[in-house]
Amino acid sequence: MPSNYRSFRKSVPWLILFLETVFIILFYFSFQRYDALIRNISYTDFQDVNNMVIFGFGFFLAFLKRYSFSSTGFNLLIIVLGVQCSILMEGLLVLLQEPNKHDPKIITMAAVSMTAVAISSGAVLGKTNPLQLIVMTVVEIIIFHVSRWINKRFLQVPDNISMKHVHLFGAYFGLAVSSRFAEPSPRSEKNASTPKSDLLSMLGTLFLWVFWPSFNSVLAYGDKTKAIYNTYFALAVSAVTAFTLSVLTTKDGKFRMTHVHSAALAGGVTVCYTAESIDYPWIAMILGLLASVITILGSFCLQRCLNPALKIHDASGVHFTFGLPGLLGAVAQVVLLVIKKWTVLPSLGYMVMIYIGAFCLTISVALITGFITGLILNFKLLKIIPVSKYFEDQFYWEFPHLAVGF
Amino acid sequence: MPSNYRSFRKSVPWLILFLETVFIILFYFSFQRYDALIRNISYTDFQDVNNMVIFGFGFFLAFLKRYSFSSTGFNLLIIVLGVQCSILMEGLLVLLQEPNKHDPKIITMAAVSMTAVAISSGAVLGKTNPLQLIVMTVVEIIIFHVSRWINKRFLQVPDNISMKHVHLFGAYFGLAVSSRFAEPSPRSEKNASTPKSDLLSMLGTLFLWVFWPSFNSVLAYGDKTKAIYNTYFALAVSAVTAFTLSVLTTKDGKFRMTHVHSAALAGGVTVCYTAESIDYPWIAMILGLLASVITILGSFCLQRCLNPALKIHDASGVHFTFGLPGLLGAVAQVVLLVIKKWTVLPSLGYMVMIYIGAFCLTISVALITGFITGLILNFKLLKIIPVSKYFEDQFYWEFPHLAVGF
Amino acid sequence: MPSNYRSFRKSVPWLILFLETVFIILFYFSFQRYDALIRNISYTDFQDVNNMVIFGFGFFLAFLKRYSFSSTGFNLLIIVLGVQCSILMEGLLVLLQEPNKHDPKIITMAAVSMTAVAISSGAVLGKTNPLQLIVMTVVEIIIFHVSRWINKRFLQVPDNISMKHVHLFGAYFGLAVSSRFAEPSPRSEKNASTPKSDLLSMLGTLFLWVFWPSFNSVLAYGDKTKAIYNTYFALAVSAVTAFTLSVLTTKDGKFRMTHVHSAALAGGVTVCYTAESIDYPWIAMILGLLASVITILGSFCLQRCLNPALKIHDASGVHFTFGLPGLLGAVAQVVLLVIKKWTVLPSLGYMVMIYIGAFCLTISVALITGFITGLILNFKLLKIIPVSKYFEDQFYWEFPHLAVGF
After folding, report:
1. Taking CB atoms and an 8 Å limit, are A5 and C254 in contact across chains?
2. Locate the Ammonium transporter AmtB-like domain: which residues (chains A, B, C) (predicted)?
3. Are the beta carbons of B91 and B83 closer than 8 angstroms?
């Protein structure tokens, strides 16, 4: 298909160069006072988040047999492109709201919000070409920040809380986008993993697992130490439970690697909302257990019932890895709030409504805009790839090496 | 063997769920004051130790051809399960001893003590099913803490010193357990590595190598900076020496990868005991050199003479990677103490006896209880696996992918 | 070739032991005051640099099909050997210059200067035996420190600036050494990568990418925070640009993995010189963009024109990965200085001359001494390996595993 290749050359580089030029010009006008951007920033936090989104997610998504170059490579591309867009949006929103206040965490928050993009790209893994991925990244980042701004403007949800919806937003945006793509043939040989690629994905998973407490502590507005150890306990219990449920749900009573990958991280996603406010480790542990349960049952049910019905193909299971645990976490936040403030606050009902409203709004925005983005991505202009070329590194990358044994 | 699989389903999940329930209940009663548990804790220390036990050991043990899923997966399982047990035991012992004092390092120390479990699991790598591993983990953690308590109660050995026996305890406990398992057939094809799996193990080794100074600094009660750089020097010299001795001891005068894996880390194990008290880098360097020598000579002698005689099959060479260097470190500690306090202390003899007593006691406890644990693990109830299924991922994990090329 | 193997046994171990003995003796005499060596040192900085040189470069260079053991193993060997030599040289130079001053960063700086060795070893990757590598390491480290001393003594270039030439020195020293080695046959099957080994190299690259901001902040003498974020912006833009230019320069309009590997890091190398003095992110971003352009165009031109003409075989492309971006960074430093101090300083011309003199001097020293070192390394005594054994792990390492599928 040489004509197709030539057309990639005509599109991808110019789109990237155009975006980079726009970004550099906007940076020129936006950040005259560099010091304000980076004053008081914690490098350790920033580095840990970076480790996760660049290294962790890159390898977490590298489980497809013939798609490991694209998983790690395109992940790098969209993260580094998106983070620039995200810094600009964060800066813009801060400027719009409080022109005189400077949030020292703009850059770190921009890196955190890239999680949404990494998750969404997981949902359409192998089905999008770089052109589509880039468009999706930019659109998603802009919408995510707008969604946060709506949350803040109309529901008075503080920035930290709305940032915690990052997993939910990423998962449902990705799913909605994914629903607009043709399903791969169920007999496709390429939509599968090998033991080697599963192991690479395990490498990414373990890396994410180890750094997840840092991630939640970055999002915590209160007691960061509590956030760290609650996350650790939730992750520990969810990893243990993952093994239990994997044996119970598989046909032969064996462990399934993808169960471990998803469910080991589920605890971290769930506890994200409440990490800094949980006062006893056992609560975090129970949340971790529930997260693992919902993930593995979700993977069981979704893949059998819901996804085929809705014609959604969720390439790396982001729905049950990030979507459902995120939902559980948001609900847990409300429940814990109710329990904690039962006697204290007369305006409890109002607060509960705000919290529920916030995550419902976020999911709705994610679903609707994701759906529209999915439609846009299927414009002919973006050179949609044929189903037969799904999950195929060789469509995008040079393979001078014979692909034997790959 | 479908009947066997079904029976795994009947045992593993329920054991894990039972343990998790017990842990959550005990956490409920033990840590009402969460703040005390995490006050003043250093997250960097905790994170580095976690990086080592979860990521580092997971891949360090992934050198077997067909056992990389189990190496990384089961390592995650037993570490996250064991760490909860360990936190409870630490909390209990602190409570027993000084009800009013709170050690801010309980969680970090619990993670450190998981090294013992990771090392022991290395000794029986490929020969135990998850059921046996879980039982071994819980038993080992409890005994390790009891052994530390005996050390403290009867020999007045401070907590930090007794924690330094973690490598020794892990190695000898694992060896004693291993002696109760049937030896694999020497012609077993599966008890071998491939270049790829050796490289994965190198990845784990380099990760452990880089983080080892953090590990020793966590255990240091005095000058943490000194502990870090002494460890670094010892590690550097032991890595260099590893290459030297590997060429000298192999048949063709080539390097052997497993020599590099073991001996590069030996310096860190040896210097653990004395890292914070060594005043000159050259002493640390000489200790690193000796550690490497003892490891490679040990690997040469043990595998040829001692192990066949005692019918011990040491799957990943923990005896010479952690056991012998640990022993050397314990002796070096006594020697350095004698040299340092020759003139100062009249009660030197008494102190020397205490130090020697402490590590002899630890090793004895490890050997005896390890032997008993080995006997327990071979109860029919725990579904011992046949020798033909040793070192075999497919016995435990789903392999939807054809295992060709694995 | 059994006679050859036996002779490795007669040389490598004794050379290493001799060097270690010398190092230990020199440490004995040099660092009586250990505290001075490690006082006020930042462990985080040291650990990040170590992560990069041990883990990052080890895997960055592991892209050759049959040379991954040697890439990671020998990298460990020369780094840990070289760092001891480097600490001694740093200590000696500090002593020569200011006997009463103690630089608390000696150890960290020693680790930083190992980057030069890692880069040079990349230029001769697969063509040198361990004997040659060890000699090259020791010679290079000594010359690098002497070159820095000349820079300081005769051009009054401060230590931090001269340390920033580390990439330039490493690249041009390595290229000059490489020019003295026989070229591999262009049809050599072994001088190639596989998808798996490219992915391993991607792992190393992503690791280096994430830690590069730390590296530049260690070298910054002024505002470390600025250095970190300028580096980050430069890296982000250079990674994005790498994808653009890769599509534009390859035959089919596809991405080339090696382009991504080199160009993603180029921004970090370029911005190294100016990271702490750039006041606006957009300048760092433009530098990152230029770095990526020069790297990919360089890779295009050098491999087609210059290298064949000069008969240089640059095994891992260090010329365009570290050499050209380093050159660009050094020029950018001068240009930014001129722009910044245009009106302020009458002695601007003098300063510009010093800066230009410094990097010209460094490159000249690197090229000349590298050339001489290349000649020395080809002495018969050092057992030069035949071209047919280039890029071959099995020449140095035991392969008990059948090498099938490797």
Report:
1. yes
2. 21-389
3. no
Q: Is residue B37 part of a domain?
A: no
Task: Please name which of C200, C208, C239 lies closest in space to residue C119, comparing C-alpha atoms.
Answer: C208
Cα–Cα nearest to B280, from C197, A158, C34, A369: C34
- By Cβ distance, the residue of A195, A239, A247 closest to B12 is A247
Let me know if residue B32 belongs to a domain.
Answer: no
The 3-class secondary structure across C26-61, one letter per residue, is HHHHHCCCHHHHHCCCCHHHHHHHHHHHHHHHHHHC
Counting one residue from chain B and one from chain C, the pairs whose CB atoms sit within 8 A come to 154
CA-only gyration radius of chain A, Å: 21
Tell me the pLDDT tens digit for each residue of B337-374.
898 887 766 778 888 888 899 989 999 999 999 999 99
In chain A, the residue whose alpha carbon lies closest to the alpha carbon of B26 is A282
Beta-carbon count within 10 A of A346 CB: 8
Answer whether A252 sits within 8 Å of B2, measured CB to CB. Answer: yes
Contacts of residue C162, defined as CB under 8 A and 6 or more positions apart, other chains included, come to C147, C148, C151, C152, C358, C362
- For C139, half-sphere exposure in the C-beta direction (CA atoms, 13 angstrom radius) is 23
Residue C406 lies in a domain: no
DSSP letter string over C298-325? HHHHIIIIIHHHHT---TT-HIIIIIHH
Minimal Cβ distance to A247: which of B2, B9, B46: B9
A123 touches A325 (CB < 8 A): no
Per mean pLDDT, which of A7-16, B189-198, C64-73, C219-228 is the most reliable? C64-73
The segment with the largest mean pLDDT, out of A41-45, A161-165, A185-189, B131-135, is B131-135
Under 8 Å between Cβ of C312 and C181: no
* Contact flag C76-B206 (C-beta cutoff 8 Å): yes
Q: How many CB pairs under 8 A join A and B?
A: 153
pLDDT tier at C76, thresholds 50, 70, 90: very high
| Chain B residues touching C55 at Cβ < 8 A | 206-207, 210
Burial of B197 (0-12, 13-18, 19+ CB in 10 A): buried
Q: How far is CA A88 from CA A22, A47, A132, C99, C209, in A?
A: 11, 20, 21, 50, 22
Q: Please check whether residue B397 is in contact with residue A255, taking contact to mean a CB–CB distance below 8 angstroms.
A: yes
CB < 8 Å to C211, chain A: 47
Q: Of A77, A196, A191, A187, which Cα lies nearest the Cα of A124?
A: A191
Check if the beta carbon of residue A317 is closer than 8 Å to that of residue A269.
Answer: no
**Residue B50 falls inside a structural domain:** yes
> Which string of DSSP letters, residue by residue, matches A200-250?
HHHHHHHHHHHHHHHHHHHH-SS-HHHHHHHHHHHHHHHHHHHHHHHHHHS
* ipTM of the shown complex: 0.93
Q: How far apart are CA C144 and CA C146, in angstroms?
A: 5
State the best of C3, C5, C18, C24 to mutate against chain B, taking most chain B CBs within 10 Å.
Answer: C24
The shortest CB-CB distance from A107 to any of C203, C229, C405 is to C229
What CATH number should be reported for the domain holding residue A278?
A: 1.10.3430.10
Task: Indicate whether C305 pLDDT > 90.
Answer: no
Exposed, middle or buried, A230 (CB in 10 Å: 0-12/13-18/19+)? buried
Tell how far CA C126 is from the center of its chain: 16
Q: Which amino acid is at B259?
A: H
Q: By residue range, what is the domain housing residue B262?
A: 42-381
Rg of chain B over Cα atoms, rounded to whole angstroms, equals 21
Q: Which token pair is A2?
A: 């040489």
Structure tokens at C1: 């070739």
C250 chain-A contacts, CB cut-off 8 A: 398
Angstrom CA distances, C381 to A45, C10, C140, stand at 52, 11, 19
d(CA B63, CA B57): 11
